[in-house]
Amino acid sequence: MIESPLLEKLTGYIGGRWTDNAHGNTFDVYNPATGKVIAQAASMTEDEVKAAVAAGKSALRLTTPYSIETRRKWLEDIRDALKANKEEVGRILCMEHGKPLQEAQGEVDYAAGFFDYCSKHIQALDAHTIPEKPKDCTWTVHYRPIGVAGLITPWNFPIGMIAKKLSAALAAGCPSVIKPASETPLTMIALFSLMDKHTDMPDGMVNLVMGKASVIGKVLCESPDVPMLSFTGSTEVGRKLILDTAEQVKKLALELGGNAPFIVFDDADLDAAADNLIANKFRGGGQTCVCANRIFVHEKVADVFGQKLAERVNRMTVGDGINGDVDLGPLINQAGFDKVKRHLEDALEKGAGLVAGKKPEDLGDNLFFPPTVITDVDRDMCCYREETFGPLVPMALFRTEEEVIDAGNDTEFGLASYVFTGDAARAQRVAAGLRFGHCGWNTGTGPTPEAPFGGMKASGIGREGGLEGLFEFVEAQTVPRGF
Ligand code: ADP
Description:
- This protein is an alpha/beta fold.
- The chain is built from 15 helices and 22 strands.
C-alpha cells in the first residue's frame, strides 16, 4: 500500500472536513506498473455528494464577494504548495498513473503554472466602465461568479487537468465540487491535503467527492445549485452531460476527445519533426488527447522519415516509471492495452506494414506496450478513425497540400493538430484550413497556462488557459446607471 504524508486520509473532503462514506464503502486504486492495489479510497453516496453541493453553496458570496486580493492569495498559496511538494505529489501521481517519475513531477510544475497565471492576471476580472455612454447611461460590466461548479477530471493528467479548472474557478470566486477519475484519486487527495494545510479558503470552497461516476454525475447534473460543469474526458460522456443538463440550461465547459493529425511535408526538417513527434506521441504513454493520432507524411520522404522514427523508437526504454530512467510506463489498464492491441492487429490485417515494435502475438501479458510504428495506414483502419490512446504511431502517405488538409479534417474531432514545413506561407494556409483549436507549426508542443486551449467540433466547448480560460467561470453582468 502507498504511504505518504499527503495521504493520511483517503476520504472525500466536504465543507472543510475529511468525510468518509457513511457505510464505509471504498474502491481499489491500482499501480498499473505492478498490477497491485495501492490504496482503497472512499466512495461517496448520493447524500454525500448533495452535502458537498450544499457546502459549496454556503461558501458562495454574491453580495459581499471575495476580493481580488483574497482570491489571488488562494491561487498563490496553492501554486507555492504544489511547487514545494512537487517531488511527493509527482511520486503519488507516478504510482497511480504509471507515467515516468520525472514526467509526473513535471506535470506538477505544469499544474502550478495555471495557478500562477491566474494569480497574475486576475485583475482582468475586475469590473470596468465602458467608455461610451449609450442610452444616456454609464455602463459598468461586472464579472460575477457563476456559482458552484462541478469539476470532473480524467486520469491522464491527474494534477494538470484539475489545475486548469480549479485555478479559473477560484479566480472567479466559484466554490467547486470536484470529482477525480477513479483510476487516479490519490493525486487529487494529495492536492486537497495541501489546500487543507496551506490555504485559508473558507469551508466549502473546495469539495472532493470520489467514487461512482453515475451517482456523482447525476447529482451534479440535476442539482439547480450547480449552474456549471467543467468536464474533461470522452466525447461519449460529454454528450451525455449535454443531454442531462439541457433541461436546466447549465453552462458547460467540455474538453473532449481528439484525433490529432501530425503533418510532415517534404520540405520539413525531418530530424526536428521526428524528435517532436516522439516527444508529443509518447508523453503519458500516448494517452493524451493532444498526442498525434494520424501521422501524414509526404510520400517523397515517407521512407526516410519512417527510418528516423524507427531509430528513435528502438532506443526507447519501457518499464516501471518509479525506477528512474524509463521513457515509457505501462498503459492505465487492461481495456486501454486491449484497445491499442486491437488497433495494431486491425491495421496489420488491412495491409499496414510494421516499421518498429512488436507483432500483436509477441506482446506480453502485462500493461507495458512497446512503442510501435506502422506505415501505409488508410482511413478504413480503426487507428485512423478512433483515438488509439497508446504508443502506436500510424503513418499515412499524402501528395498534395489540399489533400492533406482534407484528410486532417476527416474526423469529427478538432482538438490538436501539427504541421511541419519550411514554408511559412504554406504553414499559415494549413493552420487556417485545419479545424482544430491548436495547430503547432514546427513544434509538437501542447497546451500551456498562458494560452487558450480547447476543441472545435466534437472536441468540446470553451477554453482553458490564457485570458479566455480565466473568463470561463464568470458571468458578465451589465449595470447601466441612469442617474
Ligand atoms: P476516460 O476515457 O478518460 O476514462 P471518461 O469520459 O470515461 O474518460 O471519464 C472522464 C471522467 O468523467 C472520469 O472522472 C469519469 O469517472 C467521469 N465520468 C464518467 N461517466 C460520467 C458521467 N456519466 N457523469 C459524470 N462523470 C462521468
